[in-house]
Amino acid sequence: MTHAPTHAPTMAKLTLAERLRPWMPVLLVPALMVFGFLTIDSSSSWLTLTVSGLAMGMMIFVIASGMTLVFGLMDVINFGHGAFISFGAFVGTSVLLALGAMTGVPSLMLNLLAIAGAVLAAMVVTGGMGWAFERVIVRPVYGSHLKQILVTMGGLIVAEQLIYVIWGGHEIVITRPETLKGAITFAGAALEKYRLLAVVVGLAVFLALRTVMRRTKVGLIVRAGVENPEMVQALGYNITRVFVGVFIAGSALAGLGGVMWALYQEIITAHMGNEIMILVFIVVIIGGLGSVEGCFIGALTVGLVQNYAAFLEPKLALISNIALMVAILMWRPMGMVPVVKAK
Amino acid sequence: MMNILSGDRPKSVILSVLLAVILLALAFAPFLFPGSRSLETAARICIFIVLVASYDLLLGYGGIVSFAHTMFFGMGAYGVAIAIDRLGTGYGAMGLGALVGMVVAGIVALLIALLSLRVRAIFFAMITLAIASAVAVLVSQLSQFTGGEDGMNIRIPRELTPAFRLGEVFGTRVNGKVLNYYLVFTGCLVLFLVMLRLVNSPFGRVLQAIRENAFRAEAIGYRVVFYRAMATCLSAMIAALAGSLFAIWLRYVGPSTTLGMEIMLDILLMVVIGGMGTMYGAVVGTAIFVLAQNYLKELMGGLSEATSALPVIPDLLSPDRWLLWLGVLFILSVYFFPTGIVGRLRGTR
Fold it and tell me: Rounded distance, CA B141 to CA B137, Å?
């Protein structure tokens, strides 16, 4: 009996570069922060800019996450997503103005309660709107991108005009609740309290979304649906119902983002949603359509680049996001975290 | 006749009559409808027919949605305005400005197309939206070049202004404005016939094949990206030329007349109402839309006053809210008349 030939498998050791490659997109955000630290002279202004960049990124992420999932699941591109942002902002602001007694007093508890009420109202309204939007506007045009873009754009116009009808044409000024005004000083840098809150909320939404997607059965179905909807359906799950759920949740998140943005800018207009949507599109494209993680990284990158660029070279700030998008699409044409489709 | 139309017949009696009426009305507009307001409307219809047809080249034939069409339109308009501003009044400056605007539009369109179309056609809509809004902001910021929000007045050659008098024909005073109108009319007619030639050429055929099934077209051996990029460039260049004519006609350019999102929506509506995927749709859609735009606002004003006793309804019907109803109309027409008026008249569903 002969011995089996001796095997001496050679384990090629991965070089550092090869090990890092899959993590490149994740490392982009810290790399950007380090780059900012090196190019901005004073560390206190760097800290201020970083916090506001992160706050902005988190808000964009909250808005964009729903849209990217809707696309991933059902191949539906919703240009009307901006309407939910505006409606969220207007409903939230109306509630906050009505709760003036709670926002005017310097009690953190009451202020947060008022904001929570506003957020809840905004999310309920935009969630309901999302349901109606899906039913009336998106449902008849499944499968045709061209018609989806046209029809959702029409929906956006109608929703925007309805805001004019309900709240009138003028912009509304909203001040932040008493305890969230002003800034705290940390390491010589002035950090606005509200921006810190925005970072916390955004992070919480991201972690919650990630947990739902990774740890629960619903998340499993959604992730499987993104990869291969037919197979999920064949296994007995009603993918349409899942999709409607995701659509509603995404619209509600856009409403939350709208309230956050309203308090960030302290002024709201009917076309604010449309303006933010441009950033959202950039984020969704560079993140990879359909990917929540990519969306998160993309949003933070956009927020940071915008704030650094505005500080370093104010003239460049206008086109910095477009330049960022071009650069990333050259580097990774499918976005930073491409979605694997089993087709 | 068929040669001029590139063999693309209207294929419907009503449509033929409609097109002939529109053509004759536009050709003799200064004599049929005297008065500066109606001449203004006629010139607007001419220019928008070209603009909408060039958009249809992209949307209806290529199956690509772009939101940057007004940007290219604006490039042509600003090209003429800046050239005249820098080089002084003259036909040379006018032509050079139009040429430069066209070339710049072509190059920008090519870059956008290469960046987005090689990945996914759906990126195109989002990327053009982002770029167009960035450019609109840029134009209002770079006020030393573009006049910012105020825009620029253009001093065109005297022969094209109302101050230049020629005499009377059929009881209508012929002045430079009429000459200017015929410049616009001829330019638009030529551009329209060129586009008709384009879409009925083998190139147009391939574009339609790609619209129907990009995968299959690629499999047959046509390079989808190349054809789509070409369509984008051509449509951008024609839009830029239409913009140049618009600037010469208005003797003014500004962000609101050339770059605004509202104009983009108007173009979308005209294409969809007239009928996607046919050049004649642009003619019918534009003529009806521009006329309705004036008429609808007055009707809504009347209705709003008539219902002023009721609670919400006057707000819904006020002339400022006409976009609301256009939006509703737009959604309904995408659902129920995806082929538009022309598709209906031709009997294809």
Answer: 6
Q: The tokens 């856009």 sit on which residue?
A: A254
pLDDT computed for residue A1 by the predictor: 60
Each residue of A143-166: pLDDT tens digit? 788 888 888 888 888 888 888 888
- Chain B positions in Cβ-Cβ contact with residue A319 (cut-off 8 Å): 134, 138
Domain boundaries, chain B: 40-278
Q: Which of B115, B125, B131 sits opposite A149 (nearest CB)?
A: B125
Global pTM exceeds 0.90: no
Place of tokens 């070409």: B230
A104 within some domain: yes
Which of the 8 DSSP states describes residue B61?
A: I
3 state DSSP class of B21: helix
Please report which residue ranges of chain A form alpha helices under DSSP H. Answer: 16-20, 24-39, 43-74, 81-98, 100-103, 108-133, 145-167, 193-215, 217-227, 229-234, 239-265, 272-287, 292-312, 317-331
**CA B75 distance to own-chain centroid:** 13
CB of A186 within 8 A of CB of A46?
no
**Residue from B116, B129, B315 to probe the interface with A (highest A Cβ count within 10 Å):** B129
Whether A305 is in a domain gets the answer no
Q: Can you tell me the ipTM of this complex?
A: 0.81
Provide the number of structural domains found in chain A: 1
Q: Which residue of A has its CA nearest to B124?
A: A285
Q: Which of A251, B131, A161 is nearest to A153 (CA)?
A: A161
Higher pLDDT, A138 or B75: B75
A89 contacts A262 by C-beta, under 8 angstroms: yes
pLDDT at res. A342: 55
Partner residue facing A155 (CB), from B321, B326, B331: B331
Task: Report yes or no on A33 lying in a domain.
Answer: no
Tell me the per-residue pLDDT of A225-260, one tens digit each, with 9 for 90 and over. Answer: 888 888 888 999 888 888 889 899 999 999 999 999
Q: Could you give the C-alpha distances from B165 to A231, B168, B174, B179, in angstroms and in order?
A: 75, 9, 6, 10
Q: Where do we find the tokens 């042509």? A: B76
Low-confidence ranges of chain B (pLDDT < 50): 349
Interface test with B, best of A133, A134, A277, A281 (most B CBs within 10 A): A281
* DSSP three-state, residue A125: helix
Flag whether residue B137 sits within 8 Å of chain A, measured between CB atoms.
Answer: yes
pLDDT digits (tens, 9 = 90+) for A284-323: 888 888 788 889 999 999 999 988 888 888 777 778 888 8
Is A324 domain-assigned?
no
Instruction: Report the 10 Å Cβ neighbour count for B2.
Output: 8
Say how far apart CA A247 and CA A15 lie, in whole Å: 43
**Quick one: how many helices (H) and strands (E) in chain B?**
17, 4
Residue B128 corresponds to which tokens in the numbers above? Answer: 């053009």
Name A180's Cβ contacts closer than 8 Å, sequence gap at least 6: A111, A193, A194, A197, A263
What is the crossing angle of helices A239-265 and A217-227, to 10°? 100
Spell out which residues of chain B touch residue A132, defining contact as CB-CB under 8 Å.
none
Segments forming the whole domain that contains residue A154: 44-169+183-270
Which tokens belong to B229? 């990029």
Rounded to 10°, the helix B279-306/B176-199 angle is: 120
Residues in A touching B129 (Cβ below 8 Å): 277-278, 281
Backbone dihedral angles phi then psi of residue A45, each to the nearest 5 degrees: -70, -30
- What residues of B are in contact with residue A322 (Cβ under 8 Å)? 130-131, 134
- For residue A230, the one-letter residue type is E
CA distance, residue A21 to nearest chain B CA (Å): 21
